[in-house]
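Tokens in:
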């Protein structure tokens, strides 16, 4: 925790540092003239070097400071881990960079001239030739590769960088593209080639090279084909309307290794009937192989439910389930409309809209929040609401200080009706109490949403986590049966028949994390009936296998016989990296028929959000400046970009939260008034576009232009001077790597001021 426990200096306020470093739990400032000097709260030792030195002191790392003899083993371990973490990250980053460079090869088969780079006639040598060595794939690169920083002076390297950045500036290439592994490999390949390299022609790029990259991507995805055969897969489909109001349909396939994009097509001229969707999905099943497909996942639109009935008639062994992400959002939307929560959410939106509507208020707010935004966009509207409420609660004290400042009083906007309302909201004790309650109630569902929206095997835990979420909600409402019943009734009105299907319950039984921790699951009539129904569907028309599963192998699993009863099997369930599918693959070998079914069910996803992640890729590829692309090239580019991003994401093990959005499109109602409008009514149905889009599973309609958090030029108010304008370079945005903060039940209320 930051310097919450800083000591008082006579005649001055408590010294504090703007830092969330964990070492401040043990350190405090005491010298107002030297903020690098800290005092240990445990033993009282004073030292220079700041919190980094304090970590060494607590962890008893000798060399630069004497060890703390009061710190216990847990405190020592935590500080040691925190002290070593930066070096570990640095070593990991260097290792990843070496791996990226090592993957580069420009060697061509049977091409002696190309393989002889670095051996050429010195008379024709260019300035780069002194740094080029013969390329031999059989010899480790490090033995020959010279460190360019040891040979080229900084000035020349800087000039090379200027040519690159000039191109980036003119072509509007994002700055973070410089960190892309593919770009690093290009630089490595160019350096190995040497001088006189010529860029390929447009024809090569859009024809031969594009097709080669598609084939390369397919080769990289071949392990997915094998995994689909071994453990099955899910087909995900979704419809989307782009900015030009064109209807796009996507098809993705998820297996144990992750999501793969198959194809997309424009369907603007076609009616999205149940038959149309069924035919589209059925064609995909034929391509993949019906024996490899376990389920189809779509949103809850009525036309999809009609296609579900058609598929059941033709392919009775394949399940059709509703998208968990879509369903959870409906659940939370229903909770948010309850009288206990709707008023506080509305007030919070009015507050953020007011702060973001004017330069003066926006600049003032950021000056008190360390230039960090209150609004935190998420991947869905619910995610944006939760993250923003959480951000508001974390910045409560700063907002109260802002309202008490002279600058706030002098601002003309704060004297308006909306300004006075915002002031009353910020100073209201009841408002902050209700915000905390909202966070506590929503937080368990956020955990479920994070599970559903990930690229993992969420089927194994979905039903069990919903049960755990209900228990957490009961605690959040302080065991009030009345409040709990109101909330869970709203939840169940949306989840019934969607997240409590026989397939979800079968996964719940087959996951020993739940069934072995509570043996009553095996005597639950509803759950066990669901499991039997799944067995009958999974082994349709195969009475022998049904009998073997239900009467021979399932009892062994229930009674922990054979390998199920091993001590290692029990301990594996409690491991941090526990995976239900891997557990069955290890300990289920004595029950092969049940194991095959368990592996195919527990490795499933529950969400079609993989299709939604493809929407932004499609729109980037099919942007206005590239609208001359034919359908084949467009699909090839989407195939390469989407699958490449998914593979890169799995390779880097990003710690960013899946709830955080890439832009503010799902947080517009927290930034501008009337963001999600019902502006057009269909004359045939009498329904507005928003209702139609949601029924079709499409993105909600927004105002013509999405406003991003950093955009200030759209909101210039009369009478505001230039010095009030906040430039984008001065704004420190919430990082996408920030994790969602856990709610502290023992929240300090001392800073709450009476309204």
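Residues out:
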């Amino acid at each position: 925790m930051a310097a919450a426990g800083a000591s008082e200096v006579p005649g001055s306020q408590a010294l504090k540092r703007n830092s969330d470093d964990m070492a401040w739990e043990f350190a405090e400032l005491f010298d107002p003239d030297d903020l690098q000097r800290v005092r240990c709260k445990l033993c009282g030792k004073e030292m220079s070097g700041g919190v980094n030195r304090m970590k060494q002191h607590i962890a008893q790392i000798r060399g630069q400071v004497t060890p703390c003899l009061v710190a216990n083993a847990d405190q020592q371990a935590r500080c040691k881990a925190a002290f070593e973490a930066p070096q570990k990250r640095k070593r990991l980053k260097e290792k990843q960079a070496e791996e990226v460079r090592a993957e580069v090869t420009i060697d061509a088969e049977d091409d002696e001239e190309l393989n002889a780079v670095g051996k050429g006639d010195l008379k024709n040598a260019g300035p780069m030739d002194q740094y080029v060595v013969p390329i031999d794939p059989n010899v480790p690169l490090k033995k020959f590769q010279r460190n360019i920083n040891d040979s080229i002076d900084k000035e020349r390297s800087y000039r090379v960088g200027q040519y690159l950045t000039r191109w980036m500036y003119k072509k509007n290439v994002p700055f973070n593209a410089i960190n892309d592994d593919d770009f690093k490999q290009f630089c490595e390949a160019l350096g190995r080639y040497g001088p006189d390299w010529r860029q390929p022609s447009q024809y090569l790029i859009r024809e031969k090279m594009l097709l080669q990259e598609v084939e390369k991507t397919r080769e990289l995805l071949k392990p997915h084909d094998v995994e689909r055969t071994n453990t099955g897969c899910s087909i995900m489909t979704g419809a989307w309307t782009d900015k030009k109001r064109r209807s796009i349909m996507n098809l993705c396939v998820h297996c144990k290794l992750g999501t793969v994009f198959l194809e997309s097509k424009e369907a603007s001229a076609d009616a999205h009937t149940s038959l149309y969707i069924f035919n589209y999905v059925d064609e995909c099943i034929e391509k993949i192989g019906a024996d490899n497909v376990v389920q189809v996942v779509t949103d809850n639109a009525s036309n999809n439910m009609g296609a579900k009935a058609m598929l059941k008639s033709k392919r009775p062994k394949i399940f059709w389930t509703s998208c968990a992400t879509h369903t959870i959002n409906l659940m939370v939307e229903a909770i948010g409309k309850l009288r206990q929560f709707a008023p506080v959410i509305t007030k919070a939106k009015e507050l953020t809209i007011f702060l973001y509507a004017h330069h003066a208020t926006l600049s003032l707010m950021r000056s008190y929040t360390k230039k960090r935004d209150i609004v935190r966009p998420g991947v869905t509207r619910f995610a944006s609401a939760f993250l923003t409420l959480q951000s508001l609660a974390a910045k409560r004290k700063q907002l109260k200080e802002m309202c008490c400042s002279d600058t706030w009083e002098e601002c003309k906007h704060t004297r308006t009706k909306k300004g006075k309302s915002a002031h009353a909201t910020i100073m209201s004790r009841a408002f902050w109490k209700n915000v905390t309650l909202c966070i506590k109630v929503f937080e368990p569902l956020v955990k479920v949403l994070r599970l559903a929206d990930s690229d993992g095997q969420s089927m194994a835990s979905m039903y069990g986590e919903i049960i755990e979420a209900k228990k957490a909600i009961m605690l959040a409402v302080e065991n009030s049966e009345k409040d709990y019943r109101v909330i869970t009734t709203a939840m169940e009105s949306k989840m019934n028949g969607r997240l409590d299907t026989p397939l979800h319950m079968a996964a719940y039984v087959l996951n020993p994390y739940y069934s072995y921790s509570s043996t009553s699951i095996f005597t639950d009539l509803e759950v066990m009936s669901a499991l039997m129904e799944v067995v009958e569907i999974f082994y349709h028309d195969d009475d022998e296998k049904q009998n073997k599963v239900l009467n021979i192998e399932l009892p062994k699993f229930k009674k922990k016989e054979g390998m199920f009863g091993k001590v290692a099997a029990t301990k594996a369930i409690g491991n941090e990296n526990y995976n239900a599918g891997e557990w069955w693959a290890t300990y289920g070998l004595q029950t092969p028929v049940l194991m095959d079914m368990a592996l195919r069910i527990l490795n499933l996803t529950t969400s079609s959000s993989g299709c939604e992640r493809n929407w932004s890729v499609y729109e980037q590829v099919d942007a206005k400046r590239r609208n001359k692309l034919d359908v084949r090239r467009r699909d090839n580019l989407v195939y390469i970009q989407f699958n490449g991003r998914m593979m890169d994401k799995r390779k880097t093990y990003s710690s960013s939260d899946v709830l955080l959005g890439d832009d503010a499109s799902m947080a517009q109602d927290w930034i501008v008034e009337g963001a999600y409008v019902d502006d057009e009514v269909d004359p045939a149905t009498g329904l507005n576009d928003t209702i139609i889009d949601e029924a079709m599973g499409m993105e909600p309609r927004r105002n013509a232009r999405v406003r991003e958090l950093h955009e200030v030029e759209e909101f210039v108010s009369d009478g505001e001077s230039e010095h009030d304008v906040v430039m984008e370079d001065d704004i420190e945005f919430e990082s996408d790597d920030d994790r969602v903060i856990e709610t502290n039940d023992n929240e300090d209320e001392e800073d709450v001021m009476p309204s």
